Fold:
Amino acid sequence: MTVDLATLVAILSMAAATVLTRLSGLVLIRHVSLEGNRRKAIESIPPAVLMAVVAPTAFATGIAETLACAVTAFAALRLPMLVSVALGVASVAILRALGL
Amino acid sequence: MRAISPLIAAVIPIGLVFGAVAATKGLSPAEAGLMSALVFAGGSQFVAMDIWTHPASWTGVGFAALLVNIRHVLMSASLGTRMGSFSQPVRYLSMLFLADEIWAMAEFRAKVAKLTPAWFAGLVGPFYLAWVFSGFAGAALGAFLGDPVVLGLDFAFPAVFIVLVMGFWKGPETGAVLLASGGAAVVTQHFVPGVWYIAAGAIAGLAAAMLTGKARDVEVTP
Structure:
């Protein structure tokens, strides 16, 4: 249960960086108005960021990951979130066990 | 509670994995738990473990955290516009708990209902506690966990994100955004080390949205 001083400083530096990024968006919208096209652009951020996060996993990791992503995406069209996620995790585990 | 349960189910394995990785880097359970509590940003915590040295380099991990989480600026700007019923101090306090999953769920919720501080707290509270405790437990349990990759648990968050992406589908315009973002992210990740691919994908998706928006404006004007 020890906390090393250098580790603590590193953690605090990471915390400061994340607080900065989390709050600066709020500061930004107080000074810039978001209407019309800007509003539309802002609304495209959620899918764009999420896609950017998963794209390397989906298309550039391996066949097992690509197939499991496809399974998850199709499942998401019909099934609740938890079921789709569980199907995705199960299929990646099975496909990896098969050696893909 | 219905909204948060899949997130909790997905975050616990990831937290355990983070703790286990932290233990292999020589962090004590207290240090791993403290990092999860104060930083509360999984991506940057994993990246920090990737580049961890002894003694820890605060400039290195701090800058990495800034890069990984630069997307939070856009996310907080976007979510901030949905927080009409939050007082200014509550808005800032809430935003301290911004994480990908929280943000995605809140944006999703904002499409069907007005966001309230109580709903947001109900989302953030369990998620935060689950993240901190699973990080601590993962570091304490360490090697007992077995290989998370064999169990496919490392796939839990990509899977959550895919489900959320499908939920944002609004038609061909969304397709253009996803295509641009995904393509840019894959190419950038292939050629540029680090986490620039997230920024590249976000910018490409944004550009695609603006282009398709413009094209449609031209069509309607005679």
Chain A is about 85% helix and 0% strand. Helices of chain A lie at 5-31, 36-43, 45-60, 63-78, 81-97. Chain A touches chain B through 72 residues (CB under 8 Å). Residues 24 and 30 of chain A are 10 Å apart (CA to CA).
